[in-house]
Amino acid sequence: MISPPPPTPAHRRAETTPYVDLTRSEWSALRDKTPLPLTAEEVERLRGLGDVIDLDEVRDIYLPLSRLLNLYVGATDNLRGALNTFLGERSAQRGTPFVIGVAGSVAVGKSTVARLLQALLARWPEHPRVELVTTDGFLLPMKELKERGLMSRKGFPESYDRRALTRFVADIKAGKDEVTAPVYSHLIYDIVPGRRLTVRRPDILIVEGLNVLQPALPGKDGRTRVGLADYFDFSVYVDARPEDIESWYLNRFRKLRATAFQDPSSYFRRYTQVSEEEALEYARTMWRTINKVNLLENVAPTRGRATLVVRKGPDHKVQRLSLRKL
Fold it and tell me: Is residue 4 part of a domain?
């Protein structure tokens, strides 16, 4: 009988991972005296409902990340210069935007991360024009979701106009002077008719959404297509345990019920007219049947495609980070 091979030692396992794993304190030390350009009031305006991010979190986690991204942008510019030297003057390439993807579950705090990165990166003198686009604008309109039977799959990959989203980022990456996108309203839970967001040649574009790291699906001819993530120069996945995210989701729902849902125009206003327990039971059902399923089936499996994985603890604070090796 052949004996099974001995287990791989921990230090050997660490050597074979494609990531460098860092504790919070190890990561924080990498900011290298980068000054903090935001005030407590600015951080308060940037953070999402239910998020507990503060100046310490910005200093320890997002300042080092902004420094790293600034180094990446500079390295990309240098690489472009090398390419232009190779191509010669007649074929020299004009600079194109550096594109960053931010992915993660509903209620994990990815929108706050994206807004913080936009604010921090815009303070670096090398790239003052930083645009942020969420993939919500590329959700199919509610009418079309209903016609396709996809209302209970809203947020799943099939509920987006993925071709339009990929074309939008491809056009920006190609250096088009002006590109537009649809606008989504969380108040009416739908695309806003007639409204467009215009992006004009940014230095950096941040694309935030649930499924931005999804690989491209094969076409009808069986050929592999170019996917959204193929246009990213860097990507961040905001990670946490599903049970923690559920707690944050329910807490955010409570706060929305007391604020935005009170608006007569709100799609969710009906949940202000029932008891809190009835409203929360609806929220729990939404989490179990839609958001958690989407997280486990579609969002979490893309974590390994990210350049940087940011892992949060139950208190919303970042505990560990994993940076992909080059």
Answer: no
